[in-house]
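Re: the 272-residue chain
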Amino acid sequence: MAERPACPGDINIAVPLVLDDGTCIASFIDGETVTHVVGFTFVAGSEPDSGSNLTGWYHALGRVAGELHRHSEGWVKPEGFRRKVWNTETIIGRQAWWGDWRKMTQLSADDITLLEVVEDKVVARLEEYGHDADRYGLVHCDMRLANLLVNENSLTVIDFDDCGICWFGWDFATAVSFIEDDPALADYRAAWIAGYRSVRPFSQQDEVMLPVLVMLRRLQLTAWMASHSETATARRYSPQWGAITVRLAQAFLHQASPLSTIVNCKESADEQ
């Protein structure tokens, strides 16, 4: 942690507190339970006010992602540095960190069959896309607006617990978590890409892969819903999660981007 990469420009991250022995991780023993704790310096700021200009904030998110990705490419990792590797196996496969999406109780047998077809297509597309260094590396993995703190002209990125090795476009997929049925999603995507390209290249191939990564993220979140069903977030989203996920999957299989067709999916659902 002490050897974390410094952030570029006006982008900041919280500074870890160092213990007297020079380490950053404290351990507390309570009976048979060992708890590990880290601390950070206080960061002034608040979550972005998304009520008036959400598209503008997605431009900012894209720029921040591009800056961090560009920086991570040139950062020399310290000896012993390890983070989770996020790939199709650990996101939705047999080694998935968040469990099996099939265990979500709101999915019918027919739904699961459909989503398995989608899963196969997503995996095939990402295998073809590959893991070259210009598209796959150290990323935040949860860069939603809720994980930015704004203080005047300064931005601080927080919540790095999911940070690991993944596709750079994954930082867009996570940025639209839980709002894939927002009618303005295509506008958010365009703003994010524009912000990203203002600081780092993002090819047409990278852009084409964003719907694939969004679908991958949706399946991962479906697994999260199943394995974290006791949480307030799961209770809030679960009632409609399965139905919306199936509509996204149907659009995806018809060679249509969920980012451009979700409005029609949402309107169809509202009419039922």
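Strands lie at 11-13, 26-30, 33-37, 84-85, 136-139, 148-151, 154-157, 164-167.
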